[in-house]
Each structure stands twice: as C-alpha cells, then as structure tokens.
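WARN no homologs supplied; continuing
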Amino acid sequence: MTELIQFDPKKQLFILSNAATTYLMEIVEETYLLHRYWGKRLTDYHFSNRPPLKKRTFAATPLIEKPEISPEFLPFEFPFAHQGDYRNSAISIQRENSETLTRFHYQHYEIKTGIHDLPNLPHARATDAFSQTLVIYLYDQIAELELALFYTIFEDSPIIVRSSQLTNKSQQTIQLQKLLSASLDIPYEQQLSTTFYGTHQKEFQLNRSPIQHGLYQIGSSRGASSPQYPPYLALSKDATEHQGDVHALSLIYSGNHEITLERDQYNQLRVQIGLNSQNFSWKLAPDETFCSPQALLSYSDQGFNGNSQNFHQFFTNHLIHPAWKQKTRPILINSWEMTYYDVNALLLTRLIDAADELGFETVVLDDGWYQNRNSSKTSLGDWTIDQEKFPDGLKPLVDYAKQRNIGFGIWFEPEMISPNTQLIREHPEWVMRSAEYEPILGRSQYILDLTNPEVQQFIIETLAKTITELGVNYVKWDMNRHMTEPFSQSQTFAASEYSHRYMLGLYQIIDTLTSTYPNVLFENCSSGGGRLDPGMLYYFPQTWISDNTDGLDRQQIQYGASYLFPISSMTGHVSDVPNHQTQRLIPFETRAALASSTNMGYEMDIIQLSTEEKEQVKQHIQQYKEERTLLMNGKFYRLDSPFDSNLCAWLFLNQEEVILYVFRNIYQVFDLSLLIKLPVLEATSYYQEAKTQQIYSGSELIHCGLALENPKGDFLVHKIKLKKL
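OK structure emitted
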C-alpha cells in the first residue's frame, strides 16, 4: 500500500500526499517547522518556491551568525509570540510567574496508521479507506511544555485534518489562553476571501471580498457556531464555481470559534482557525493535556463546486454516523406552521390520517405538547405531557401512526429552562448564571448549565424515557438562544473555561443518546441554522437549516449552505402561502422544487387541502420518492448564483441521470429566454430530455447551453430531467 506520509531526512521535509493533494513542511535549523506548500498533487519537490532569505532591517535574528533568518518573515506551521514574529500567534500561555513567553523547538515525529481519535470531541471517523496520521512534537525546555501537531490524510479525500495538543510536563499549573487548531503561512497572490454571514431566518449569506493589509477576523462568542459567522473560509484567485484553485477551511466544532486572516507587510498571508481565544483560558495542571478541535483543510482545482464536493464526500464518508450516511430519511409532515402551540390529540389523529392518505412517512409533533406550553414563555424543562391536550398521553397516537406504517417524531429543546417551572423551583442552581447578577432572558428562557453532570444526566434520562416509552423514531433537537452569562453556580472552574466546558457537556449528552438509539433520527436545529456546523453533523445526520421557508430567501440559504454541507444533511419543507416569514406568494411548484433539493418534508395544514391540492401533494411526494436516491446520494453542483443574478440553478447527477432545477425569480420583459450551461456533464456522452425525448450531446450542453422558456410571472421554476444514453 502506498504511504500517504513520508519524511525525507536529507531534505528535512514532511510530505503528505495522495492522488489529489500534497502538503509540505520543512524543518529549518533543527528548530523551526515551516510551511512550504499546500495544493495540487506534486510528483516531486526540490524547494523551487522557497524564497531566498536576506537580512531585513528591524527583523529580530535569534541566530546571530545567520541574520537572514528571522521569525518575522518565516512561513510557520504553528507560530508563537515573543520571538520576533509580530503576526497573530497560534498558541498563548501564562505561567505562575506571569511569564507569557514560549519558544517551542522541533523535537521528533511519529507516523501512525489510522486516524487521531479525540476522546471528548467530534472528529473524523475511521473507515475502510486507508489513512495515516503524522504527529510532530515541539517542546519548550524552559516552560516544560510539549506541543503536538496532528495531521491526518485519507487515501480517498483531498482533505487534510489538523489539530493540536498541549501537554504540561512541568511541576507548575499554567493557564492556556489560546490554542488554535490550524495555522499556515502562504504567499499573497491577489486572492479573494469567501466567508458567510447571516442572522436568524437569513443564514449562509455569501461574503466575497479582496484581502487588505492587516488583520481580518470572523467567528462567534455566542456559545454556538452561530448563523452570524459559521466556521468557513475559502481563498481563491480566479476561481469560479467550476474551475480554478480553491483552498478552504472549516472546523469540527459547535461553539465559540475564530477564523483569522492576516496580510503582512511582506505580502504573506497567515490563515488560522480554532477556538475563539477571546475570554478563553484553561487551567492546565502538571501532566494534563488540552486538545483542540479538528480543522479541515480542503483543496480543489475544480473551483468552488470541486471544493464543495470534497466536503460533501468527506462528511458522508468520515463524519456522518455510519448508520445514517446511506440510510433513507423519512418524508415528514411537521405540525409547527400548521398549529404552532395549539396542538391536541384530535388534531394529531387527523394529521396522521391525512399523512397516510398523501404518502408521508413520519408525522412530527413540534412545540406545544407538554404541560401548559401555550407560548414561548413557559414550561421548558417540565417535560410532562399536557393532559388537557392529550388526555390519553402520546403513546396511543404513536401506536396509531405505526398501524399505518407511519413514524412519529417529537420536538425538544433540552438545553433550556423557562422561569416559573417546577424544574427551576427544584433546581435553581441548574441555571446558567452569575452568582451576583440577575440572568438575562432570551426568547423568554434561560439556559441550563450543561457543565453540571447532574444536568447532563437529567437531559439524557428525560429524552431516553420519552424515546423508550413512546417509541418515537425521530427527535427534533432545538436550541433557541445564545449565551449571555456563561457561568456555573455549582462548578469550580474559571469562568473563562465555561463555554468550552458547556460544549463538551453537550457533546457528552448527544453522544450518549445517539449511541443508545442509533435508529432514531435526531435532527439538529437552532432556530434553523443557528448551530449548523460539522461538529453537530458528527452526531445529527441532518439539520433544519432555516426557520425561513420562503421560496425566494431559501434559494440563497440553500445555495450558501451547500458550499460546505451535503444535500443529505439539509432539511427543507414545503410551507403554506402567504409565507409565514415574508408573506410572499410563491407558486407550489417552486416551493416543492426547493424542498426537493433537500431532505424533503412539509410544514402546512394538509388536513384542509382541497381535492386538487391533495392530488398535487401526492404527486410531489411520489415523485420525490422515485428521485430520492439520486437527490440524496448523487453529486450536487451549483450552476447560477442567486447572490449574483435573477436566477438560481443547480443540478444533481449520478452515472445515469441528471435533475436540473432553474429558479427564475422576477420576470423581465427583455429576457426572451433563459440559457443554462451544464459544465459538469460528460462531453463525450449523449443525454435525452425526459419530456420532449430530445437528444443532446454533452459537449453542446456544456458549451452552448440549454435554452428554456421564460414565461410571464414571478418565482417560476424549470425542472429538467436528463438520462445519459
């Protein structure tokens, strides 16, 4: 078997390489670990891109006899402060004497077969694909600290997995103030940076801009990965969706994070990703170790689509739980926009009947099912079935659904607690809050202290009891506010450790539940995509990506999210019109097409549908079932961006079939027709269009494009099915 990692002792060069990518590091002066290359696979390397060094004024020179060597302009793999490198560091510590100086020197390395397993954090999973991990050890002899850098490469993926680990080998306790997951220095070559910003109901908005001199940083200090700045950064120069080099980073983590981009005076770029170091520290006693989350480094020479394919395939093969990565997800009807809090047994019975008639596979009872929950202001934490709404409980409804071969799901918001509940009266110390200040409400609720093992056990037992006693096959896990007072009333660690400890507590809870109930589909939600990140994807195979179901806004949200996440990990619903978030009136076909481009479900009143509307829904569900394998397991490509034009287009393909969706939003009288090019098809193949039976060559669809009608009216969709001959 070909080795994926090698060390050349003559060149002092670490080489990580597979069929798609190469990553190179050099040891200089037996001390410094320097970055040399990350990109397309190289057949060999002889330092052709290594710049000649020369002495520079004001540059610190640790080696007096070699003034041309200065940390100020060396391209480090993992930089640290106070050594003449004035750029952003990747690690920061404070010793008992308040000293913050560290000088790590290269010590040795190991090459191991397989992955690096993080015990308390989500991480890349081992599969049948061959993988190797390089561990590079750096050491500070004065502070007696060992820094281990981990690099994992798989034979079936262009993605490099990086993380770091600090071990205190001294006899004193230190404060770790910063430990990033990945850092690398590369030349500035007029690249653009691509990130995403957003808010509730407007997630994954594209942000592409030139890189200026200075420091650019995004991230989250909200206690969640957040819709504001999800963990993603890409660098590109002349790349399009379909061609050009794209280097992208993400983080397998769901809490506070930071991504930093720094362009210095010598036109070098320092790119960094990891835990948010703002208000963070971690007490590290003698012989204790702290591990960073894993960072993902993805390279493609096939544009942004190619880079997305890297992430999609990696998440499917090496992150999503094996029990779900190829498993068919149920088509569901969710009660929320149909009823909001006004649910009851009779209504659910009728909903199950309607779901059975129309072809749904699961009915989901959303918020409002537990005691006195008639608004967002009450009852979180008191997970007792409301006897007025459900006098016989929920078990008869679950059984009634199963008799019709329909699954039953239920909504929870386990991390939260409402004021004036029995739980808060019994356990006021379970609330996340400071000892002196009154806690601030968010969405009329507080947050439970997940750093407390008793709280963790309470949540595990509450959900386990519900799943076991009711026999539900689906849990929607919601989280609807961000942290304001990250403090524990019962634990003794420093407040600066709280946010990360909360996340470790959350991971402990959901790891226990998803391991205990591997056949229950847990869906991630945080007011939609408020905690949509690779860390949650490790446990929950799909996410409700936005509370906004509007057929216009969803185009941008789904288009943006696909830069990172496979379609199988996104959930979309057909909702009613006027839309509850925007009041827009968008045709059913367009809403159905958008939902069909995800794990499809419905969120509307299907009980009151007319005969004609029922037939429309039936046909849509049946068609989706026929196409589901292609939509969930095929490759997904973006074609036209809704961020740039009046069009949004994407397609799904496998070896035999193609489904193309083209959304045309506002009608323009000067557009006589629409022209869509399909550059991801095979040029030498022929394709037959399903409706007209017209045959086209792949080369003409790639280069000439496909002309479509442009009828009057707004928010229209074209769906084209092609079969490869």
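The domain at 5-318 is CATH 2.70.98.60 (Beta-galactosidase; Chain A, domain 5).
OK
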